[in-house]
Amino acid sequence: MSRPGTSLLLDNVGELVTNDPEGTAPADDRDVWALGVRRDAAVVLAGGRIAWIGPASAAPAADARVDCGGRALLPGFVDSHAHLVFAGDRAREYAARMSGRRYATGGIRTTVASTRAASDDELRANVADLVGELLRSGVTTFEVKSGYGLTVDDEARSCRLAAEVTDEVTFLGAHVVPPEWAGDRGGYLDLLTGPMLAAAAPFARWADVFVERGAFDAVEAHVLLERAAAAGLGLRVHANQLGPGPGAALAAAHGAASADHCTHLSRTDIRTLAESGTVATLLPAAELGTRSAFPDARRLLRAGATVALATDCNPGTSYTTSMPLCIALAVSLMRMTPAEALWAATAGGAAALRRSDVGHLVVDGPADVVLLDAPSHVHLAYRPGVDLVAGVWRAGTRVPPRSRLEP
Ligand SMILES: [Zn+2]
Prior knowledge:
TIM Barrel; 14 helices; 16 strands; 34% helix
């Protein structure tokens, strides 16, 4: 445990992934080199920061020591896409979908009704449970979206509750048009880009729009993105999830930090993303949860696009907080290498949040680290479904293990 004023030596690290390849020996593969792997290393955490990185043989003394026993130590995962402020679940809808019904955007409205009916404390408790899951799965930085309130007060409330657990709050009033506005889309757009945006913006860093048939079209999204940028928010876009569409191109044209999903991209979309500063964030647990075809990450990587992996944790299509699962899916079903998938879940996520402080391990950077019960990061994909996260330190403080219910 490292408290301010104390130091912790993580000693005897078999494989230290830093995502900082400067000064490391060239690897056979560029994707592996990018991880900045150091063998037989040690790390000292102090005052919430990384105080020292070097060979285990030269490790300095510290107030406490953990013998990592040759295991792998990684930067904490960065989950750049999660919908955590909601009430209720949609297990029945999931079961129905797995019995043959197709996913449509309308299911979001079920969660909107439960969320509006919930108290602040109910929502807060649900967020806390999910944040606990994220932390224990090794996620040390995470984004949280609103989008299940869809009234001025409920969206402001969702952003306010999200801001209690993260700095990376995203206003997603443009999730779907709520049922009470179904006959007046223009009226909802005025509300969304006027009073709702104004009420949510003080709690948010980002604004997002779901560009999809059944959600928002390109013209509507354009208006939202313009107004959100004018309100000082950074931009993100739910793009090209259920079919080809204008989302990814719109994200790039507006200088959005990320285009998320990117399941159905044209060659032009891929070139546009690669030439832009917009990160392509892939959410393979959403394909898993909707029994859909997975995006081909290889095409994006070959074109030179920056790729991130995120959980998309939400009660409708991707009810998971497990970044290791996303890594395993990315490798097995999206043709990423284990090294690319780990980079995308750490440095890629940081890029999608335009954060230069997290997603890598450097001296003076935040002490956000994950210890695996495995000798190599490759095991995250190689051993799918096995809980390999042996320890997580966030800002130098160890994340407590799950507290079990009393029998
Ligand atoms: Zn989403």
